[in-house]
Write a structure and sequence with these properties.
The structure holds 2 protein chains of 2 kinds. Chain A is mainly α. Helices cover 73% and strands 0% of the residues of chain A. Chain A has one domain (2-426): Formate dehydrogenase/DMSO reductase fold (Up-down Bundle), CATH 1.20.1630.10. Chain B is globular, with a radius of gyration of 18 Å. Classes of the chains: A mainly alpha, B alpha+beta.
Chain lengths: 451, 230
């Protein structure tokens, strides 16, 4: 079928699947060592108890819960870039979709997993199913995150099928991989009929996932927002977390695509014009994030209620202030300065900003979660210093995420080949047609949507 | 059905902390050791909080003994994902140590900070390991624990009264929990808040009575009598 021709034109996208350099093995080896170190730390924690962390009373939650919110946030990248931009027919999304969906699928297990890492009795995890109580926000999370995880894996797999079939038909690989491709391709032949069905299902899933993004991150925020802890108990925390999640997720997409572009020589596919479009969106998210931050803290400050002000003060001028102000610089000052200037809004500039934004967003989660715990209502000041065990597990999670991603890039094309082909074949005439229909005084072309 | 509650007279309290010590011994609270205690890992089901205020240029200090408030509408119970903490039919906020998954959502949700977590496997050095209170389970690592209003004493007293074919009397109840029994100033009272004749319900109606963080709407069942003497 016509899409099969894509495999030739887009040979560069299959190159990483066929040739593997020394750099890959070194990367994997380093990542495996880091993951093993994190696993060792977790085994220690399992054997000895959560006492090996820095958590205490009153700071009962620490970096694990921070990681939980952060990873779930990261995962919204895929859905945003792939699903939402698909719905609004933003054509510049195409080189990003696969890379973004992979960020979603590979970061979600670490978001959900961080909750398990934090449990005092992970052996009793299934109690959540046997004795689950829907009055608890944790149950809302368990439900919505599992649904989101299943849905995004399904969506990811759907969009992989035509590419897997191309791998099956075109690549000369070992029998194990050939069998894997044959199995995963589900007998895809690439007929018009199949593509039409795939397109329809992808559209339905895109709408479904967009809804889930809003629900999932709002519910994540509600773990905090639904309690009466000052600094957590606010209506804005849901949308604030959602905005931050998409913000850090877009950053993650910029970083990963820039790395893939460099390592796998995808300069023809991921061009400065694509990064520029994503950067402008990124910039607007930074402004939106600042708006939420300002509204949240100004309301607290003006209201001047003592219970809320002790936490405000802890963040603004006391022991948490270095982290707070670094967060403001990372999430607002740097993005606005760098990305609003066309001369610095380059690929390198966008990547640098994305790194800062992700550091800043991790700090934001920390700053939202820890200070309210460190100022209990009945007085006293709590302190919290994470131990090496917590850092090892945290770094291990990030390394594991990168490791899964790296292995994925060796098995499947990182840019959706069939989507690129679809763009060339259909979207260009379709977009022209659409433009004509917007304008008065332009004769409608006889070009029809039918093939 | 009774609704158990407590009244603490701050005028009588001397801040001696006998209540805290009695509670530790009675309820098999594990030893934390100085190092862990400095990290904020020590468990005290009962604590005496010092409340120091500067009032019109004059320092004003008072002690507030703090057991679990056994709220009628407890924020901790609301957030538990597995029903490991619950309000029983007599109004006590209970813990199921066998079901708790150790997520510590309840510990963050409790505005009174009365919940504690077992960071390590509980440790009872010799000779304390030979003197654990029978009928009080030792908690495993990784679960949350808290004040029970000495429910084991309450259950025993109920059984003994039932064996004699009578109800528990108010005078038997007043000093029932270990903290109340140990109080040298007789500042603490325990009993049924729903019985209009009981000591606690009479004192709870006293104009001096107040509860901690009352405006949060948690409906605590521990009442304090505010000091009259400066």
């Amino acid at each position: 079928m016509k899409h099969e021709a894509a495999a030739h034109k887009d040979a560069a996208l299959f190159e990483p699947l066929l040739r593997t350099g020394k750099g890959f093995y070194v990367t994997v080896a380093v990542l495996v060592i880091v993951v093993a170190w994190g696993a060792y730390a977790y085994v220690r924690q399992l054997v000895l108890g959560l006492g090996v962390t820095g958590m205490n009373r009153p700071v009962f939650w620490g970096v694990y819960i921070t990681n939980f919110v952060f990873f779930i946030g990261l995962s919204h990248a895929g859905t945003l870039v792939s699903a939402i931009l698909r719905i609004v027919k933003a054509e510049w999304r195409r080189p990003f979709t696969r890379a973004a969906e992979a960020v979603t699928v590979f970061s979600l297990p670490f978001g959900a997993g961080s909750i398990i890492l934090d449990l005092g009795r992970p052996d009793r995890l299934l109690n959540v199913i046997f004795y689950g109580r829907f009055q608890s926000a944790i149950l809302w999370d368990v439900t919505s995150i599992s649904l989101y995880m299943l849905s995004s894996i399904f969506y990811f797999y759907l969009s992989l099928i035509p590419d897997i079939a191309m791998c099956r038909d075109r690549l000369n690989v070992g029998s194990l991989r050939a069998r894997l491709y044959r199995f995963l391709a589900l007998g895809w032949t690439g007929s018009e009929h199949q593509y039409r069905r795939l397109d329809r299902l992808m559209n339905i899933m895109a709408v479904w996932l967009t809804m889930l993004v809003v629900i999932v991150h709002t519910v994540v925020a509600w773990i905090f927002g639904m309690t009466i802890v000052p600094g957590w108990h606010s209506a804005i925390i849901g949308p604030y977390f959602l905005c931050g999640a998409i913000f850090s997720g877009v950053g993650a997409v910029i970083i990963t695509t820039a790395i893939l572009r460099r390592v796998y020589h995808l300069e023809d596919y991921i061009k400065p014009v694509h990064i520029n479009a994503l950067s402008l969106f990124f910039l607007s998210l930074s402004l939106l994030w600042f708006y939420f931050t300002f509204v949240e803290y100004f309301t607290t400050f003006y209201g001047d209620e003592p219970a809320h002000m002790v936490i405000f003060n802890a963040k603004f001028w006391q022991e948490f202030s270095p982290l707070f102000w670094v967060m403001v610089v990372c999430c607002f000052v740097i993005p606005v300065v760098v990305l609003s200037n066309p001369r610095t809004r380059t690929i390198a500039g966008a990547v640098a900003v994305s790194v800062f934004v992700n550091i800043g967003m991790w700090l934001e989660r920390y700053i939202v979660i820890i200070p309210p715990l460190a100022r209990p209502r009945l007085g006293g000041i709590g302190s919290y210093i994470p131990t090496w065990v917590e850092w090892a597990i945290t770094i291990g999670c990030f390394a594991f995420f990168v490791l899964l991603y790296t292995l994925f890039t060796k098995l499947f094309p990182v840019v959706a080949v069939w989507e690129m082909h679809e763009a060339r074949q259909q979207s260009i005439p379709e977009t022209m047609e659409r433009m004509r229909s917007y304008m008065p005084g332009v004769a409608a072309s006889p070009l029809s949507k039918e093939e | 059905m009774p609704r158990w509650g407590m009244v603490i007279d701050l005028d009588k309290c001397t801040g001696c902390q006998a209540c805290t010590i009695a509670c530790q011994a009675e309820n098999n609270v594990p030893f934390a050791g100085p190092e862990q205690a400095a990290l904020g890992r020590a468990i005290h089901w009962h604590e005496v909080l010092a409340d120091v205020k500067d009032e019109h240029g004059e320092l004003h200090a008072r002690f507030i003994p703090r057991p679990c408030m056994h709220c009628d509408d407890p924020p901790c119970v609301k957030v538990c994902p597995v029903g490991a903490t619950y309000v029983d039919e007599e109004g006590l906020v209970r813990m199921d140590y066998q079901r708790c998954i150790g997520c510590r959502y309840c510990t963050t949700a409790c505005p009174y900070g009365i919940r504690y977590f077992n960071w390590y496997t509980p440790d009872f050095p010799e000779p304390y390991d030979q003197h654990l209170t029978p009928g009080v389970p030792v908690r495993p690592v990784g679960v949350v624990e808290k004040c029970t209003f000495c429910i084991h004493r309450l259950e025993r007293a109920k059984r003994e009264a039932a064996a004699k074919g009578r109800e528990l009397t108010d005078s038997e109840l007043v000093l029932l929990p270990a903290c109340n029994q140990a109080c040298p100033a007789s500042a603490r009272y325990f009993g049924d808040l729903d019985d209009p004749e009981s000591t606690v319900s009479r004192l709870a109606r006293n104009p001096r009575a107040f509860r901690l963080l009352e405006d949060l709407g948690t409906e605590p069942k521990v009442y304090y009598l505010v000091e009259e003497k400066a």
